[in-house]
Write a sequence for this structure.
């Protein structure tokens, strides 16, 4: 296995993205490669695999043509091709029977994605988009680099999940909870900041996250304890399936645990 040769074979342009099977652990579609001006980043998102890093690659003049570099000092704004009220939003919700209000979603006309806006202090600071076709890769796309989690709902109990759909489903299902999507399986300082104000936090990552659920629960407990919260404020949930599928066992578990925190 030679990661340098693999990167060169991909021949990615600046801003280019590749997703496929991991070269180290063989995880299906868990390996990503992203080309930036600073170099080429590669990472496997499968729980337990630590194959990641950055390779410096030569930049050609042609790479820089028609390339826009995002200025992180500028306020985030949704691209003009992301709109509200598109018929594809309702059609997508009906296909999967998700109990999510279409008023909370946007649609990417260019890439055919359902877009979930990430808000902080009432302002849209980021967004994440889910492809509506299996042919569109990557399946999920992050439009900004805020580091904040996607949240849905106004309840006092936070349900920490991986993806925006599960967060939106939980935020729409129970008025006592707020779905909080990490948009991955990593706990950031910005996530801890967002989770401070809740009476309870239930970490409910997808079952295939493995030990990540316990790791994030322990890390979050430690972070919140240092900020004056109690150890019992954070609970790790063992799910049968992703929460967006609303399996009976999982929804009853959430309901019972939420009741303990309110």
């Amino acid at each position: 296995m030679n990661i340098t040769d693999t990167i060169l074979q991909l021949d990615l342009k600046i801003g280019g993205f590749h997703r496929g099977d991991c070269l180290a652990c063989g995880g299906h579609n868990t390996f990503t490669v992203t080309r930036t001006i600073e170099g080429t980043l590669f990472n496997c998102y499968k729980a337990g695999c630590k194959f990641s890093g950055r390779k410096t690659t030569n930049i050609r003049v042609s790479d820089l043509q028609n390339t826009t570099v995002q200025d992180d000092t500028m306020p985030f704004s949704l691209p003009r091709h992301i709109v509200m009220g598109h018929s594809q939003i309702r059609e997508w919700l009906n296909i999967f029977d998700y109990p999510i209000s279409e008023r909370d979603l946007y649609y990417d006309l260019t890439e055919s994605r359902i877009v979930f806006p990430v808000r902080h202090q009432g302002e849209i600071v980021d967004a994440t988009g889910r492809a509506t076709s299996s042919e569109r890769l990557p399946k999920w796309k992050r439009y900004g680099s805020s580091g904040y989690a996607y949240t849905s709902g106004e309840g006092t109990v936070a349900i920490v999940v991986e993806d925006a759909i599960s967060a939106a489903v939980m935020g729409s299902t129970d008025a006592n909870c707020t779905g909080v999507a990490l948009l991955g399986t990593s706990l950031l300082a910005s996530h801890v900041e967002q989770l401070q104000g809740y009476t309870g936090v239930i970490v409910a990552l997808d079952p295939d996250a493995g030990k990540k659920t316990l790791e994030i629960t322990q890390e979050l407990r430690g972070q919140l304890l240092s900020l004056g919260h109690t150890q019992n404020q954070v609970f790790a949930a063992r799910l049968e399936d992703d929460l967006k599928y609303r399996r009976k066992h999982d929804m009853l578990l959430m309901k019972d645990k939420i009741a303990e925190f309110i």
Q: What stands out?
A: The radius of gyration is 19 Å. Confidence is low (pLDDT under 50) at residues 59-73. Residues 172 and 180 are 12 Å apart (CA to CA).
